[in-house]
Amino acid sequence: MAMYLLYESSSGYGLFEAHGLDEIGQNTEAVRSSVSDLSRFGRVVQLTAFHPFESALDALNQVNAVSEGVMTDELRSFLELNLPKVKEGKKPKFSLGTAEPKLGSHILEATKIPCQSNEFVLELLRGVRLHFDRFIKDLKPGDLEKSQLGLAHSYSRAKVKFNVNRVDNMVIQAIFLLDTLDKDINSFAMRVREWYSWHFPELVKIVNDNYLYARCFKDDDDKSSSLRHIPM
Q1: Could you say which of 3.60.21.10, 3.40.50.2000, 3.30.420.220, 3.30.40.10 is the CATH number of the domain covering 2-160?
Q2: Which residue among 151, 164, 178, 230 is the one 20 to 30 A from 206 at the CA level?
Q3: What average pLDDT does range 3-13 have in this prediction?
Q4: Is 58 exposed, middle or buried (0-12, 13-18, 19+ CB in 10 A)?
């Protein structure tokens, strides 16, 4: 049975055919060992079709749909155009490997294209991701990195924008920061008391307040002057 792989990159959808699985065997370890070798991996997995995104906004909409396990009309057209036709009443002679199980379920439900998502498929897709810029000949050096960075920023901003708890998150972070500062101040005060006790051990029992103790430690040069400046 033939296997195709759907790879969602930051620049577009890629469809790959794994047509020589006998080269590496139907096991995850064999795939993992062959991924780093492009010459070997390229004999097994080859590019079938590539559909670039029209714009940065289109890329964001597509990746949002993929993350939610939804097949867009654009993805459906791409798959139906480049995959073998699924005949009614007959068992398909191919399968489509996807990284997202929910997306695979939606594709199967809507198009009857059999999908699978397992460790074997994920290792094949890892190899595709590693050598993706070698498969797409029209990509210039740096284009893929720029699209990944731009999409990552847009995706993160969109997630924060629609997070209903975003205001609470700021309050939670501020409280956490205050707690951290309190712990750090207490730790530093303990170290000051410990170190200065070698010079003036009696001061620990006389001054309990950390701030006053630090002032005595900073301003005074000897024991007698320390005692004169302690507030009564």
Answers
A1: 3.30.420.220
A2: 178
A3: 89
A4: middle
